[in-house]
Amino acid sequence: MASLFQRRRSKATQTERVRERRHEGFLRYANFRWAKISGGLCLLIIVSYALIDVTPRPSGGTWYGYTLGTIGALLILWLTALGYRKRKMTSDYWSLKAWTSAHVYLGLSLIVIGTWHTGFQLGWNVHTLAWVLMMLVILSGLYGVTVYATLPAALSNNRDEMTQMQMLEAIRAFDRQLHAAAQPLTPEDTAPVLAALDEDPFAGGIMARLSGRYPRCATAAALGALRVSRSSGAEAREKVVGLLSQKEAALARLRQHLRIRALLEVWLYVHVPLTFALIAALSAHIISVFFYW
Amino acid sequence: MSDVVKVAIIGSGPAGLSAAARAGQLGMSHVLLEKTDHLSDTIFKYQKGKRVLATPERLDLRSDCRFAEGAREYILGNWDEDAANNKVNVVKHADVAEVTGEKGAFAIRTAKGDIYHAETIVLAIGTQGNPNRMRCGGADLPHIIYQVDDPEDFKDKHITVVGSGDAGIENALGVAEEALENTVTILNRSKDFARAKAKNVSDMMEAGENGFLSIRTETQPKLVEPGWLTLETPNGDEKIECDVIVARLGSVAPRGFVESMGIEFTGPDREAFPKLSPTFESTVPGIFVIGALAGYPLIKHCMNQGYDVVEFINGNTSLTPADEKDLMAVFASLPQQKSVTEWLDYLRERVRIFADVSPLQMREFMLDSKVAFYRKGDVVFEKGDPGSSLFAIADGHAEVEVAPGVTVPIEQGSIFGEVGLISGRKRGATIRAGADSIFVEVSRTAALKLMGSVPGAKRAINRISLERQLLQIFKGGLTVEDLESVVDAAEVERVPAGKVVVAEGEQGDDVYVIRSGSMVVEKDIGGKRIFLRYLPAGSFFGEMGVLSGAPRNATVKAAVGSEVIKLTGESFRKMLAARPQVREATEAAVAERAQMNSFIESRKASYSSAVDLYSDTAGFIMKEGLGEATDALLIDENLCVGCDNCEKACADSHEGLSRLDREAGKTFAHLHVPTSCRHCEHPHCMADCPPNVIHRGPDGEVFMEPGCIGCGNCMRNCPYGVIRMEAAPPEKPSLLRWLLTGFGPGPGEPSPKWTKKQLGDEKPKKIAVKCDMCKGIAGGPACVRACPTGAAIRVSPEEFLSIARLQEDAG
Amino acid sequence: MSFILRRISTTKTGKQIIRDQALPGDTITLGRDAGNIIHIADLAVNPQHAAITSADGRHVRVAASEGLGFDFNGRTVDAADIDSAAGAELRFGGHRLTIAREGDDIILLVERIDELSQSSKDVDEAKAFSLAGVMPGKRMGAWTFGIIVLLAFLIGPIWAWHSFRNVDERPQGYHADMAWSSGPLSSAHANLKGDCQACHVEPFVAVTDKACVGCHTGEHKAMSMAHANAPTAMLLAARHPPGVGERILAGFAKTFNRPQGRCVDCHTEHEGAGPMPATPQKFCADCHDGMKARLIDAGFKPTVADAADFGTLHPEFRPWVHAAPGAKPIRALGKAPLDYNGLKFPHDIHLSATGGVARMAASFRGRYDFGNKLECENCHRPESDGVRMKPVEMERDCAMCHSLAFETVGGVTRTLRHGEPDQVVADLFAYYRSTPPTRPLQLGGMERRRPGAYAEGQVYNIYFREVAVRPNRAEDAVRAVFSKGGACYDCHTIFAPASGNRWRVQKVVQSPRFLSKGWFDHADPGHAKVECATCHTEAPQSKRSEQLLVPGLAPCRTCHVGENGATIAKVKEPTRSSCAMCHEYHSDGGKPWMPERERKKKVAMVTDRPPREVYAVTAITGPARRHLYDVTWRTPVLGFARQGG
């Protein structure tokens, strides 16, 4: 384990301090330092649990239980602190990547710490609630790790050097051109175009965001309608159809972008609230133990 | 009018006005000639409400006109009053066309044809120069304008913009705004808009597609008539409606005009200034040059000089310049007690590069230089320290540590530190004081100015630097004498980015040393150009040819605009013959490189994909201009989840403004180069900073010290668009408060809406903000620290393209 | 009059540009089509949308042509009459037509008021592109969940506790603090599951013994005398040095005010439904393992040997015995202890399958439940609960053979009084006085005597005595009865009359319970199914009744092993036996624990409520400062302990 913590060069100028010549993801940070640490921790717990026989039977109330419980509770608080750490730009040296790495692996080790703390006594009570919440938080976290590991490339491919605002701007440009180009159209042809113009690119609920499917997409509808329509001048209509299909493409890119971002974010909407539910349950759990001592 | 005035002042800018005001105060007969219908045109043309700063603070104002930081209108207003109060005799619409005669009897003819007679002339015309006029029938009609102050002054007009530079396009877009309902046409003589920024061109094209303006290429005006304009198009002439013509055809620098009076300049290149005496007198007796034209861009300087020059003309010789006390401060730390003038002479006679510097320039240089006394053995700077200043030895001597234990003395009168100055690289060797010595440290800008304005100095510096560079490359065992022949035969070549210096397979035995910029070495393997190596400034290439006589085995081309020193083969060979150990050293280097090439070739056979990727990545990085970067932010989009924590961190560790735009920028194979400062070797932003507040810091970072006047030059000069003109947003509520209540904008740069709400109607001054690599923050660059997934790193290209990388990839 | 079209457009910088333009004619057409006088480039407007006319140059009529109407005062209409002086606002698609009057001109002001398209509306990038737009915020969620959980599982329970502070018995049904239960209660306490305060009286005060003894009154002691009377210092010294674990636990206990030595230390609750689990052997072994040495080191005098595990380390039994005739009972020391109970009883003769005794037993078959020979149970009868044996009774267990009859009068047999020597003497004298010493008639009878006829329990003894002693004198008869060969002498130790007093018989003492510390249940099915001899191995060979036949450790260990199966010798079908199986900590005479498999499933519930005072005490004095093994003690009824054996 000694090799896990070799100190940084003491007199390193700030730029050298954070110099890395290569990109190294948070999962493989420092050659899986935290994976090793938490893995070791879990192993230690499992083995010692098997070896030590506590009276009257394994549970949170034995000295072993107390120890695991204390470790677990402190760990949970520390893990929660990541949310603060990543937003607090203090000037001293720290690397959020290291924090994330530790967060992920120590968080996973909580599965063992927490579960073994219960001594596998689960029931319908606040204590088990805390455990369940903890597991849920960890599961959502697992999802997060997975998408963080798999989706970014897709995000990058999809946006293809375009910024978000550029994507939106593209759509706006097409709208302006549509509006101009659609002037000569007959009312029955303008109606779908209007609908397309009135379509909010950000519309659609969470499901639409996650699935990326927009069945009632006005632009697509307008495209369909104008393709078949014969009412207004062919040449003008062609132009509009062309613009519509361009806008549809632009929309598709934007929506795909939104989708991937949603997939990357959605878990936080479970992870964070449940974390605080967990902390509440945890405090209830601890207080209850001492209240009815 | 025929009566002769004592002094005619041409140009009513800060300098001219101040001079005239002084003359007025002294009751001198004078005339102030202004070509426009208002005073101080340059500042007049600032956009409305623009804040004008009064820097440098340390310099105190000596003038009869008031000047303090304030809005454009406020300052102009003050000056109009002052002009009146000081009974300044202004003549407007007096565009000087020609000056004849000599001291005591000058004749000044204006464009309108009036003649003014003056004993002396004070030239304060600044550097803005005059716009190029249209050259076609009716070119002098009044509806031809040469600038657009406020596009919204024009509505429902037919406007034709002539000229396809950025200025023209920006004006055209301005007046073409939908609401103004102008009919705008922009003319371009050639097919494409090569001279304009891509952004501007694309904006214009879009506007064209949307029918807000019509773009006519290969078209130029032929005849201008009121309301109408005849165009010369590829398919015959064409007459279009035209109420206003905006002509943006660039401008002629005033230099030609100045030289036409017989005033000599210090050198041919564009940094050169007129040769001046301590009293601002040019080489033509009786003509004095002050202000920006004399090389003093700051308003305060100009106004002080205006005052001074008139005092001089008035025969006041005892007047000491306003910067006297600052110079005293510069010399204060020295053991000997001398007056400022004595010191200046002392330096000028003892230091070679100062030899033919005018006392006036000397003052200027010393203002942004340091003079320090070093005891024997004191370290001046260490090897590897960043720094771009130039040192001159006024007394004693310095010792260079070329190799551990091996020191080479540098004699008094010579200079050192020039490598840093020229290549922008870190210091190549440790320098100690060989005896109790006095060294002058000239800041980079001052040094460049010196080289620009004093050809002698330039030559000296170049030669020395070349010698030194060679000495450094072939460590030890060489003396200046050995290099004599080599250096004499050497010539400096400018190489534009992408130009091939040495082509694979061709014969040749010249050896090149990269003076500035950087090169990439490529080799054609299996019909594909494979990137072999990145050569930063200070390294050399082509030596294989000399040693083996074989044809070039790789292609070397410039990654960025660079300067190489070409050493002829046989002179080099002679030197090697004379110095076997140098030959060995060189051969060792050659062997090492050859071995690496063969490694890559072998890999290419087995792991071609890895090598290709490496090579393509390298190509991409060079294309993105990272060749001149010393430290760039690179994002691996396989890891980046788009949380923008880097931007937030940047904003939060500075004054609430992010210096990087993660999303913007090019991407290749998921390697993303965001819009953020690369801390170039030769920062373009430094090139033209009136208050000279952009510097290279101890960690090699290019940063801005307080005192920016918000002129925006750096922003315009930066080819990577990483400098913003922004005002710092107000204080945000504490983070905890936001976390708990969600009140306020939260981490990162607050949204403009919020800022607006906080500020109400006060408009703080926008100044330039750029990445300072988190200078002075112990933790180091915030963007990297704050990346949760490790997607962001800061590297220099040579680190990033290290062969180690390929070895890892290709196994 | 004329119509003037006014257009106001706003530049990016917010500057407004106003354009007036006189319109020809007095019928103004309005629409998207370029042919209209007022041309509105708005897709929401029809090519020919409406016509504006004015008859008198003041009142304006706006009439929509076919299709879409326009909005006027918020309603969609097809036509509207407007007094231009009053002015009006009409809405066509995304544009607003304002009608006003200046001088005698009618001003028609047309402005776009809607964004050209939805996407053109400016967005807050951070919000729009993230999920923040479509999901309830994280912060909100965090607060809500957190508060809900706190309310339901912290405030609620505390409130429940508070609201029942001074209530004797909670109503049945759900109480918030039930969510705090760390596990189901044992079946004995099952009915308390809704009533946490029954035990957890004071907040942040660990459950006290008061809570237990409130219900567990009667014989239940908080602690055995041995421990209760022992000085605390000694008890402390007895404890084995704590390991890491204990130290941690002790740390917690100390920090969070959790005294030790309370009932609940051993009788752990919330361990799951079903009967309370047996107190594990560790609780005893913690002290008793190697205690002797520790006590000696600590300068105390150990009274008990070390015991760690029945299978491996347990001292030999020390039954109560009378070391000498008539001596006080003491705990036997060493092997084969003697117990002088005052009787002469050779077990070997009585249990042997041959010889007179067996024959006689056989002769009584049918009249008594004898077999071919005597069995243990013929004389040793179990107590009603079957746990121990009743004392042997002369009349019930011996008299059928050892008859005391001496004459028959008209078919009624007269017997000597057992247990009353003086009566015996008196009866005999009376007998001799009343009748002359004539030969009893039946002795002269001619009929043949069948074996076993003696056993008729009739005159047998006396007859021979008469024959033996001549001349017939009462003293002789009395002496004969009490002397060797006499009826009493056979079984009892006789003291001949010395100066002043008469014949006396040694008092007989039978111990009801030899092993007072341990508990042995003869009725236990496990024990019942084996022969007496399997444990009481000595019995068939025992010649003297002084020999104590209570078995030692060895026979037990043929089945019983340590709590976790530790043994010295191999045992087939072992019974894991914790201390609690035989030893009964509170020594209140109750039954100790039984092995799991034999425990009766139906266990009586404690249903009576703890008396109020139990709480009242602490309610008044507040939580008592407690010391190690500081307990509530009520004097025990230890019959055997006092009268011994």
Short structural summary:
With about 800 residues, chain B is α+β, with helices and mostly antiparallel strands. Helix content of chain B is about 30%, strand content about 25%. Chains in contact: A-B, A-C, B-C.
Order of helices and strands of chain A: HHHHHHHHHHHH
Number of helices of chain B: 25
- Biggest sheet character of chain B: 7 strands, mixed
* End-to-end Cα distance of chain A: 40 Å
Q: Work out the helicity level of chain B.
A: 25-40%
Structural class of the secondary structure composition of chain B?
A: alpha+beta
Radius of gyration of chain B: 30 Å
The stretches of 5 or more residues of chain A where confidence is low (pLDDT under 50) are 1-18
Shape descriptor of chain B reads globular
> Averaged pLDDT of chain B, please?
84
* Strand tally of chain A: 0
Q: What is the strand content of chain B?
A: 25-35%
Integer count of domains of chain A: 2
The whole-angstrom Rg of chain A is 28 Å
Question: Total strand count of chain B, please?
Answer: 43
Uncertain stretches of chain B = none
* Shape assignment of chain A: elongated
What structural category do the secondary elements of chain A indicate? mainly alpha
Head-to-tail CA distance between termini of chain B? 87 Å
Describe the protein in words:
The complex is a heterotrimer of chains A (about 290), B (about 800) and C (about 650). Chain A is about 70% helix and about 0% strand. Chain A has twelve helices and no strands. Mean pLDDT of chain A is about 90; it is low at about 1-20. Chain B is globular, with a radius of gyration of 30 Å. In chain B, strand 37 (about 660-670) and strand 38 (about 670-675) form a beta hairpin. The model of chain B has no long low-confidence stretch (mean pLDDT about 85). Chain C has a seven-stranded mixed sheet, with no helix packed on it. A five-stranded mixed sheet of chain C has the order 4-3-5-6-9, with no helix packed on it. Chain C has a two-stranded antiparallel ribbon with strand order 13-14. In chain C, helix 14 runs antiparallel to helix 17. Chains in contact: A-B, A-C, B-C. At the A-C interface, helix 3, helix 6, helix 7, helix 8 and helix 11 of A face helix 1, helix 2 and helix 6 of C.
